[in-house]
Every structure is written in structure tokens, then in C-alpha cells.
């Protein structure tokens, strides 16, 4: 049995849709990396944007690997709990990539400003005409804006439906990519106008936003890896859905110590200090949120008090 | 203007998506016009090399003491071409490569003609034109370059264009 077998069909369909979107994401990102690489020249901003676009491949690849293992990976002797947590690991990798992108952009911009580097953007001969390379860079940056803008927007509702933080982080990565593209356009136009500092200032301002998103994703992903309480989809704050579940369980099992953790998109609840009920547990009766999202409650475990010790 | 929005037209209430789109389009139009005007104006030189050459009619050229006559004919053709294109007279100064590069980076020269390896560490600190002449291959390759101050993109483009025309006379016509 795979992890996806426990998910309702509409969630599995949404997962497949997200996978298809991520394949498109990879194809478009590679085309952007090639286009930017061809016109990069000596521009530091273009080099940074190219590195960022390349790093943008990390979240979709991590998502595809995690989704594939979730859908196909069988629980085994070596992996008795299946592969639910691969998504969490991918989330962590994507968060590192996002934070690294922001940090790289900030470092690069600050260094360019401190050293007062004047970027050289020369010309190329194309179809018998000498063209300023900046125009080709602008065309490449404009092209690089469009796919992440569209794909990022398409990812957000899927990430919400799947409660997938890895996919959500990829949407943030796409946002970072198109914002950097916009900064790059401003920067190249600024360079063209003789304002050598323009691209670095624009890139530095945007890097602060990217670092903020990356930092939030890092906090959530590390919390998940060390069995922290479930966090919100887009913030490191505790998930409202999970908090409501905790309150419901505490009301129902007075005096119990209720502990929640998250593996990928699923919530595991442990009720300590209470013996397991004799009758099968009705998960619906314990779930305080929308019934459509009951699939998130993967496990409700009871840990009876230990004789002569705390539970 | 064709992009004007009729008041009360369906779906164009203030705040609606189409209203916002209309505003964005209105902002885009002048931006596009500015961009088209900028086509000829860009790039500019942060330190104003092209403007200074146009005003004073002088190009300050450093000539590195190099490998005998290597690259001399191509360099002379480049200077002739630049003199024609800019209406400025080259003012030559010979010297050792490194002091000339220092003067170039400080803005005391507009260009240095020097024989260099394509893998020279100077490549990141100054801008090289397309090679004017080449001798040897692989590790032994030596190219004659017009070397320019980094970031002076209008001037760099002018010299690159002239260098291409000198190397391939048919291309620049």
C-alpha cells in the first residue's frame, strides 16, 4: 500500500495535476536558463538571475520526487512507515534553495555597490547589425518573467488544496524569480542610462523579500523535520486547523496530553495518558474542520498511562 | 485615446480586474514610447567618455610596448575608423601595459592598444574589444585588443563596432 492510497481520489487527482504543472515548470525553467545563459555577458545582475533561475529547478524536482514516492513508494521492511516524509524533506531543500537565492542576491548586490563595479555590457553583431547586448538581455529577462508569473499563480490553489508546503514554496520561488526578472529589467535599463548602481539597488530591495520568504519556509520545514506542531501553509505560525483539532481532542479526552505533528501534508495526533477506546474511533467526530479535509488526519493514536510513571 | 474606459461600462468598475488592467495598459503605453525613444539613446557612459570625446574631438590612446610590429597595422586601421566615426583625433601615448591600464581605469585614457592573452587576468577589470589581430594558438595565443574602461558601454559599443569593421571590412558597411 502506498501513502497516496490513503488519500481521497480528488486529492490524488489534484496531486497528478500538480505533477503535470511541475513538469511544465521544469521545461520552461530550462528554456529560461538557456536563454539567459546565451546573453549573460559580463553583467553581474544577469549572472545572479541565471543562478537564481537554475536554483529554481530545485523545488519542482523535489516535489516530483516526493509526489512520485508518495504515489508509488510501498511501505517495506526498510521503510515501514512509507514515504510520507519525503515531502517534508523536499520542503526543507526547497526552503534552503529559496533562502540561498535571497542571500546570494543580497550579497552580490551589496558587493557590487561597495566595490562600485561598473558592469560592461557590450554589443553583438546580429543579422549584419551591431546591437547593444542590453536589448537582448531585456528580451531574455522579459521572457524569463512570464512562465514563473503564470506557473506560480497556478500553483497556489493546488498547494492549498493539497496542503503542500513544498509546492507552496515553489510558488514563492517562482515569485522570487519573476521579481528578480523585474529588478533585472530595471537594472539593465539603469545600466543603459549610465546609472551603474541601479540594478544592484533594485536587486537588493527585492532580495530582502526573498530572504523573508525563505526564512519563514526554513522555520516551518525544520519544525516539521523535528516533529514540531503543524505549521500554517504560508507562515511558521501554528496551523489553525491543527490547533482546532488539538482543542477538540483536549475537550474530548480531558486531562490528556495531546501532541500533534506533521508528515508532509498529513497530521498525526497522539493522545497521551488515555487508553485506547474499545470501539473503533470515528475520525469524523474528532475532526473540527471542513470534512473535505478530513484526509489530513492520518493517524489518531492513544498512549495509555504507564504503570509507575508518566505517560 | 483608444484605451479610455467609458464610465459605467460593465466589468470596469473601479477596483475590478478589467479596470486595473486598463490602468496598467495606460501606464504601459508611455513606458513603451519612452523605451522606443531610448533605443537610440542607450547605452550611455557613466563617466561620460563618448560625450567628452565628442566635445573635445580627442581620443586619448595608450599604446602598449608590445611584441614588435604585431597588431600595428590593425590598430592603425582601427584608429582611422574611429577618427572617421567620431570626428575626433587620436592622441597617442606609449608605455608599459600595466601603468597604461591604471590610467585607463582612472579615466586618464580612453583606450589602450595592447597585445594580450585571451585568458589575461585583466579581462574582468577592463573590457576587451573583439581581437584586432591574432598570433599563435592555445596557450601561446596572443591577440591585439583595444582595451576599454569597464562600464563605458556607449564608448565600448562604438569601439567594438569599429573593430568588427576593421577585422571584417565587409561587415561594417
What would a concise description of this structure say?
Chain A is mainly α.
Structure report:
The complex is a heterodimer of chains A (311) and B (173). Chain A has 311 residues and is mainly α. Chain A has helices at residues 9-39, 44-55, 58-72, 86-115, 133-162, 165-192, 198-225, 240-252, 283-286, and strands at 123-126, 129-132, 257-263, 266-272, 297-303. Chain A has a 3-stranded mixed beta sheet with strand order 3-4-5. Chain A has a two-stranded antiparallel sheet with strand order 1-2. In chain A, strand 1 (123-126) and strand 2 form a beta hairpin. In chain A, helix 2 packs antiparallel against helix 4 and helix 5 (133-162) runs antiparallel to helix 6. The radius of gyration of chain A is 24 Å and the shape is elongated. The mean pLDDT of chain A is 88. Chain B is 42% helix and 20% strand. Chain B has helices at 17-41, 49-56, 72-86, 97-105, 153-167; strands spanning 58-64, 89-95, 111-116, 126-128, 133-135, 142-149. In chain B, strands 1, 2, 3, 4, 5 and 6 form a 6-stranded mixed beta sheet that branches. In chain B, helix 3 (72-86) crosses helix 5 (153-167). The two termini of chain B are 42 Å apart. The interface between A and B is medium-sized, with 21 and 23 residues.
Amino acid at each position: 500500500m502506498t501513502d497516496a492510497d490513503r488519500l481521497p481520489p480528488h486529492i490524488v487527482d489534484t496531486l497528478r495535476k500538480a505533477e503535470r504543472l511541475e513538469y511544465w515548470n521544469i521545461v520552461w525553467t530550462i528554456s529560461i536558463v538557456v536563454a539567459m545563459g546565451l546573453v549573460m555577458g559580463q553583467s553581474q545582475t544577469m549572472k545572479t538571475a541565471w543562478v537564481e533561475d537554475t536554483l529554481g529547478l530545485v523545488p519542482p524536482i523535489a516535489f516530483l520526487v516526493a509526489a512520485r514516492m508518495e504515489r508509488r513508494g510501498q511501505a517495506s521492511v526498510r521503510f515501514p512507515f512509507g514515504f510520507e516524509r519525503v515531502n517534508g524533506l523536499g520542503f526543507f531543500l526547497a526552503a534552503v534553495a529559496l533562502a540561498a537565492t535571497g542571500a546570494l542576491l543580497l550579497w552580490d548586490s551589496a558587493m557590487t555597490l561597495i566595490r562600485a563595479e561598473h558592469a560592461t555590457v557590450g554589443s553583438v553583431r546580429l543579422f549584419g547589425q551591431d546591437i547593444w547586448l542590453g536589448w537582448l538581455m531585456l528580451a531574455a529577462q522579459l521572457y524569463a518573467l512570464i512562465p514563473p508569473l503564470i506557473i506560480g499563480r497556478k500553483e497556489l490553489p493546488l498547494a492549498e488544496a493539497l496542503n503542500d508546503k513544498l509546492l507552496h514554496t515553489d510558488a514563492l520561488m517562482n515569485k522570487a524569480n519573476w521579481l528578480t526578472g523585474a529588478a533585472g529589467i530595471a537594472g539593465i535599463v539603469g545600466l543603459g542610462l549610465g546609472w551603474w548602481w541601479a540594478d544592484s539597488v533594485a536587486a537588493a530591495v527585492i532580495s530582502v523579500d526573498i530572504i523573508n520568504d525563505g526564512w519563514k519556509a526554513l522555520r516551518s520545514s525544520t519544525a516539521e523535520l523535528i516533529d514540531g506542531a503543524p505549521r500554517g501553509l504560508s507562515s511558521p505560525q501554528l496551523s489553525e486547523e491543527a490547533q482546532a483539532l488539538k482543542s477538540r481532542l483536549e475537550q474530548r479526552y480531558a486531562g490528556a496530553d495531546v501532541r500533534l505533528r506533521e508528515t508532509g501534508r498529513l497530521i498525526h495526533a497522539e493522545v497521551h495518558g488515555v487508553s485506547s477506546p474499545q470501539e473503533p474511533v470515528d475520525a469524523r467526530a474528532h475532526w473540527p474542520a471542513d470534512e473535505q479535509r478530513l484526509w489530513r488526519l492520518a493517524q489518531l493514536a492513544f498512549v495509555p498511562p504507564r504503570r509507575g510513571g508518566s505517560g | 485615446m483608444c484605451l479610455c474606459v467609458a464610465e459605467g461600462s460593465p466589468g470596469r468598475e473601479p477596483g475590478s480586474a478589467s479596470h486595473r488592467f486598463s490602468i496598467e495598459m495606460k501606464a504601459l503605453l508611455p513606458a513603451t514610447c519612452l523605451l522606443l525613444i531610448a533605443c537610440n539613446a542607450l547605452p550611455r557612459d557613466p563617466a561620460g567618455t563618448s560625450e567628452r570625446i565628442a566635445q573635445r574631438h580627442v581620443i586619448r590612446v595608450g599604446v602598449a610596448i608590445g611584441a614588435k610590429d604585431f597588431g600595428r597595422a590593425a590598430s592603425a586601421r582601427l584608429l582611422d575608423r574611429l577618427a572617421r566615426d567620431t570626428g575626433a583625433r587620436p592622441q597617442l601615448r606609449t608605455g608599459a601595459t600595466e601603468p597604461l591600464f591604471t590610467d585607463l581605469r582612472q579615466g586618464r585614457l580612453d583606450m589602450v592598444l595592447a597585445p594580450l592573452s585571451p585568458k589575461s587576468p585583466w579581462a574582468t577589470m577592463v573590457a576587451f574589444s573583439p581581437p584586432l589581430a591574432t598570433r599563435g594558438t592555445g596557450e601561446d595565443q596572443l591577440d591585439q585588443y583595444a582595451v576599454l574602461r569597464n562600464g563605458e558601454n556607449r564608448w565600448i559599443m562604438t569601439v567594438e563596432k569599429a573593430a568588427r569593421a576593421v577585422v571584417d571590412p565587409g561587415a561594417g558597411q
